[in-house]
Amino acid sequence: MTAQANANDAITQVADVDAYMTQLGQSARDAATQLRRASTAVKNQALLAVAAHLLAARELIKAANAQDLERGRDKGLDAALLDRLALNDARIDAMIEGLHQVAALPDPVGEIDGLRTLPSGIELGQMRVPLGVIGIIYESRPNVTLDAASLCLKSGNACILRGGSEANASNIALSECITKGLADVGLPAAAVQMVETTDRAAVGRLIAMPEYVDVIIPRGGKSLIERISSDARVPVIKHLDGICHVYVDASADLDKAEAIVINAKTHRYGVCNAMETLLVDEPVAAQLLPRLAAAYLEHGVELRGCERACAIVPQMNAASDEDWATEYLAPILSIRVVDGIEEAMAHIERYSSRHTDAIVTESYTLARRFLAEVDSSSVMVNASTRFADGFEYGLGAEIGISTDRLHVRGPVGLEGLTTRKYVVMGDGQIRQ
Amino acid sequence: MTAQANANDAITQVADVDAYMTQLGQSARDAATQLRRASTAVKNQALLAVAAHLLAARELIKAANAQDLERGRDKGLDAALLDRLALNDARIDAMIEGLHQVAALPDPVGEIDGLRTLPSGIELGQMRVPLGVIGIIYESRPNVTLDAASLCLKSGNACILRGGSEANASNIALSECITKGLADVGLPAAAVQMVETTDRAAVGRLIAMPEYVDVIIPRGGKSLIERISSDARVPVIKHLDGICHVYVDASADLDKAEAIVINAKTHRYGVCNAMETLLVDEPVAAQLLPRLAAAYLEHGVELRGCERACAIVPQMNAASDEDWATEYLAPILSIRVVDGIEEAMAHIERYSSRHTDAIVTESYTLARRFLAEVDSSSVMVNASTRFADGFEYGLGAEIGISTDRLHVRGPVGLEGLTTRKYVVMGDGQIRQ
């Protein structure tokens, strides 16, 4: 299928969605069995081969993308959405570079941990192995096609990708490069499959076929993620909200505190690890809040404060109860004055989305308490919440962030796409 | 509530099951917040206090159990079920001893792993923390009440227990000891709650309230587990089947092989890690099968073989295709002659329930291939499948065995009831 034909056939239907998805699932399951056994060298060669094909197909990809953009403009997509859709040279270069980076990462598959001999004489360890088949459902950004495929491939998983229909032609052009790269090294084409029908029933099937798909990773807006999580019959790796807090304790170094809370809010606004609520210990509120307000004003951040905060900085708007529970993804910040760490942690316990929460303090005891007691996927002392990121954590990759408790929590890299099995080496031992 | 009153009120109803379960859930969630912060010492003291109360209430417990047994006999429960229900002195002693053992286990909560400094200067590690609230649904055996409560408590989790209605009086008597033990050390009563209504709607709620319950562990027959897994709206830690294989490769030491395959089948029959299908490499089939058949015959094991197996040992019954997919939990064994490890692994790939599969071999290369390529929760070389067990694995405990891939796989001990969160210690770092 050429990019031209795809653009003309932008709304692709298949006669029988159930049968189509079953066939996709079975192929993925078969491919996963092969990928599980693929050597690191072959997987890396595949990634580099895909990169080479991307390089060679640069103009074709841009042409396909141009068609998506044209359709998008006709449909009235706004500038921000068109920007997310766009694939220019810089972004294609980033995709190629990303493939090289993933190829350079250590392969977690096959690592054996904790090999020890038990009283019975058996030697026991845990071996890291791929999850199997991963379904990734995403909107807008075509680069996710490459991110997802490369991370799944490197971790030995087959994947089924379902991108946004607005990026259909781009995604198909990209997936053709992937298919060629896989073929170059003898890996099955079904290692990476795109759902090529835009029929919504296909998504419903993808998230409800545990015999073929082991886990779903939705990437996109909150309503997409909520819908998928509620209907999925397999585990979902996701985060819903990023309502992150920073609590400035009375013992904090106020210069560090200011740098951290300005960075945590203003470094980037539309990201899940941006601080949305600032908690300030009463003894330092009068000293700190005016400094911060001035700095936030310079950045154009709207402040919404509790009564005591507004009393100290009258220019603040009054915060409603709803503000404490809101992820703004914008230059807006809720501020609350609290009486000590107990109240701060109680507020966090109630309102945090359990993504990332931080304390700024010079108290050894309070730092340890905060780390031990706050129940979030990342808990920090004296660092900006913006560090909650797979690359910053040294994972070398990030397919998403999980705020759930089971399997993987926090930024999800290659290891999050694997599981472990017990391996036992004996010498004829039997149970007595 | 005395044991006497309970027996007279054996079918307990509550007016509004939804409200009742919501209240149970909220109490559990609140208790979990406290338990998360409880010290190892307090948790251990609680376990020992519960043990002391069990000791003191021995006669009361037996009296309550006697009422359950009487009701069971009236209802026509068979001898095996009545035996599972019975609490005699030995079993009460075992429960007390079990509490002491769990108290003696290392506490996984709070352990920090992998603390390292990243290029940005932040120090990053992963801290082990409780899952939160665990729902445990079980049948018949009242000792599960103690197993479950003690493991959840030690790992810092609150739990909601729903036992079989046939053990109602026994479970209530046991839970009273637990409540007293918790009170003795100042831990919340809601750390361990029993669902005291036998209304089935309560189970439906328990498995579908993710705001209060983080994970469900069903213990019982396959139909219970299937029903719960299919209806649960939260993760379920479970195994469905234990269709375990042993493959005897041509290079195997036949004495080791014989000891292993006899043990794997006959050590205990009604357990999930008993071998249900034996695969024998063709070159050693003629030599091995007659030896094995004689030994199995002595144990009274019925053999069902493929054509080639029956040709070697005519006394075998012919196996049907369905036999390869059957977990007998009985003295019956399927036997298949295969041509090499590829065919053995293909058979396992198709029929294994991914619980435990083993190879007997002297080939270094084939041993490593089997360990790497077989996709089960436990994979073994030269050891009986009966070793797939939390105590044999050194976990010190076992709440169940998981054959799913996510979160925990294989025997589930204390660590399986925990998760991890990232902890970051900085010195004022901000994202550039």
From TrEMBL, chains A, B:
Function text: Catalyzes the NADPH-dependent reduction of L-glutamate 5-phosphate into L-glutamate 5-semialdehyde and phosphate. The product spontaneously undergoes cyclization to form 1-pyrroline-5-carboxylate.
A molecular function GO annotation: glutamate-5-semialdehyde dehydrogenase activity
Residue ranges constituting the Aldehyde dehydrogenase domain according to the UniProt record: 24-317
Entry-linked PANTHER family: DELTA-1-PYRROLINE-5-CARBOXYLATE SYNTHASE, GLUTAMATE SEMIALDEHYDE DEHYDROGENASE
Listed EC numbers: 1.2.1.41
UniProt subcellular location: Cytoplasm
Organism annotation: Halomonas binhaiensis
A GO CC term assigned to this protein in UniProt: cytoplasm
Superkingdom of origin organism: Bacteria
Reaction catalysed by this enzyme: L-glutamate 5-semialdehyde + phosphate + NADP(+) = L-glutamyl 5-phosphate + NADPH + H(+)
Pathway connected to this protein: Amino-acid biosynthesis; L-proline biosynthesis; L-glutamate 5-semialdehyde from L-glutamate: step 2/2
Keywords: Amino-acid biosynthesis, Cytoplasm, NADP, Oxidoreductase, Proline biosynthesis
Family: Belongs to the gamma-glutamyl phosphate reductase family.
Database matches in Pfam families: Aldedh
Protein's name in the database: Gamma-glutamyl phosphate reductase
BP GO annotations: L-proline biosynthetic process
